[in-house]
Amino acid sequence: MEILRLENIYKRFGQSAALRDVNLTVQKGKIYGLLGPNGAGKTTLIRIINKIIQPDQGRVLLNGREMIQEDVFSIGYLPEERGLYHKMRVKDYLLFIGQLKNMSKQDAKIAIADWASKLKFEDWQNKKIGELSKGMAQKIQFVATIINAPDLIILDEPFSGFDPVNAEIIRKEILILKKEGKTIILSTHNMSSVEELCDHIFLINDSEKILDGNVADLKEKVEEKIFSIQFKGIMMAFANALWAGYEIIDKKDLGNERAKVWLRMRQGNKINDLFDTVKNVVEIEAVQEEKPTINEIFIAAVEKKEGGQNE
Amino acid sequence: MNKIVLITIRELKEKLSSKSFLLMTFLGPILILSFLFLVFWINMESTKPVKVVVADPGLLLNNYILKQDHPDIQFEIINEQIDREEFQNGELYKDYDLLLEVNQKIFQNNTALLFYRKDPGAKREAFIQRALEKRLEEMKFAELTNLPYSKFQELKKPLVLKTANIKTEENAKIKRMSGWVGWFFSVIIFLFIFIFGFQVLRGVTEEKSNRIVEVIVSAVKPVKLMYGKILGIGIAAFIQFLVWSVVILVGLIAIKSTMFPDLYDPENWKAGDAIATEFESISNQNEFVSLVYNQVDYGVMLSWFFVFFILGYLLYASIFAAVGARISRVSDVQQFLIPLTLPLIFSLFICGYVIQDPHGNLAFWFSQIPLTSPIINMVRLAMGIPVENAWEIYSSMLILILSFIGMTIWAGRIYKKNILVAK
Lengths: 311, 423
Fold this sequence. Notes:
The complex is a heterodimer of chains A (311) and B (423).
Chain A: E1 2-13, E2 16-27, E3 31-35, H1 42-49, E4 57-62, E5 65-66, E6 75-78, H2 90-100, H3 105-118, H4 134-146, E7 152-156, H5 164-179, E8 183-187, H6 191-197, E9 200-205, E10 208-214, H7 215-220, E11 226-232, H8 235-242, E12 246-255, E13 258-265, H9 271-278, E14 283-290, H10 294-310
Parallel strand pairs in A: 3-8, 3-9, 6-7, 7-8
Antiparallel strand pairs in A: 1-2, 1-4, 4-5, 9-10, 11-13, 11-14, 12-13
Helix pairs in contact in A: 2-3
Chain B: H1 3-16, H2 19-46, E1 50-55, E2 73-78, H3 84-89, E3 98-101, H4 106-109, E4 113-116, H5 122-144, H6 149-156, H7 172-209, H8 212-217, H9 222-258, H10 266-269, H11 274-278, H12 284-293, H13 298-326, H14 334-356, H15 361-368, H16 373-383, H17 390-418
Parallel strand pairs in B: 1-2, 1-3
Antiparallel strand pairs in B: 3-4
Helix pairs in contact in B: 1-9, 2-9, 2-12, 7-9, 7-13, 7-14, 7-16, 9-13, 9-17, 13-16, 13-17, 14-16, 15-16
């Protein structure tokens, strides 16, 4: 079920275009990765969703109808550059944010106690934020984002600055939120978290969306697939047999005339063609398709776009 | 709860718990009271009578200048030459502050010599000059005519020019003094706008530079954040001024009842002799005490103060907020402060002209311009506005309110546009 839809979003800042004809659809209960190089337009897109800035053109629909100002309270937003009021006490700050997000004082207090117990900051509630460690302060920022249990949560670089222990805590909380039916959009450069958490990715580059799809599907759709092949035999003979139809990306000597080679298919070759080519030269022990990482998909897509523009 | 109220309460709590705010709340009035006490005390010291020894070897003055002692200046006439070296260093004249030499040629050249150990000040010098002049006129009159002395007194009776409003019969001199009371309130308005306007400017820039602003504007409209900040800091300023008012009023009552129990009673200052009034010699001290204790209608002045302080603060705070939204670094804030408060500083300077002519063109137009009206109107109000001119105050208030509304709308747009732009 669709929760958010962006239609034909355009935004310019002065002479430079920040977003060009961006369309995307977000389904309920999934985790989305919003990826893109620095300056691609991710933060502008997020600010438009949060109605902090208005698009020059296009519509943002939440639950099937055009968004109004009040709708932003059903969105939890953690900006990339997020400050805190350092002179406020932790519980006063969370209460203030909760009430700003239309919660009653009582509900906000209950939510604060609940999150304090979950993220283990009960003892820190009366401390001033300026006295907290960086990790603890970031937990407070995370709680402030979701204190009103919003249906849609947008986290811009949620793991930046976290140590591995605290990053893991937040990662688990994100998965729990998904189980509870919340929809989450992650904007991050941390590809391992995208790989681990996201069901779907949007890739924005140079103000445009260049990739949009389910993570598993995107991995399947890679045109030039990579295979690893393990064999017994002479490496030189194996390489000579491949000729121009395959590209060796990497190789590893396993000893006793055994080796593992990673290669990319060229000229429309399939796995059977590979078998036919090398079966008389070496003794094949194992063949496996190597799925690309999100990082590789990301780089490949950006390079392809830039290559296309240069041509 | 309304979001502007939430932001206002947060700002207010932060200000009220700030150590510098608490320090200034109590230190401010104590400093003002100490200053007033100092002025009273210094004036008291300066009212010790000055002793003048008059060397009149030719008996020209016939042994008196004033028929009785004046509280401020006492004359003693010696009918012999006094050696200046003896006056300066000798034991005989060490109790005298001034030496007045009257020699035989005085009727020809109209010149006398006055030597001092410590400068007596212009006012005392003028008093001595007038006293001697008057005595010499008296002597000449007796020498040249056969008329009785009472005729001379009749002839020399000074003209008193009493300037008063035809309707209210209000005294113009007292009115001008009241203008300075208004000026004092204007200075307070300036100080509060300067201090708290700066806090708005700094607060907006701080929120922008420490990146809390994006968290907040995702839950509240930027304009509401701006209004909440302006109101929160404004209420803190208001509370601080209330504390100042109470502490200063209590302090003034305490000073009045303990240190100067008699001085504030007008009956007591009129106890000087006839010449004293003639020589316009109500002492500085009594004028000041009178000004502080008898001529300030604190109820009226405080009421108008609150009106113009609130409207002036809101207008300037909106400008400060808009400028603050355009600045990205807190260190850049300082340089904007003086240019932004320049109209107020300028107004304080032209108050002197307004006191001289409270209903002139200058006073009228600057009382209508919203950036200067909070300052100028306090002076005009302290001097009294005739009923037929009351519309000027109301039109000034209306212009100020409309300007504030216009400015907050404009400032809101600037704020919204710039608050997330880091340069």
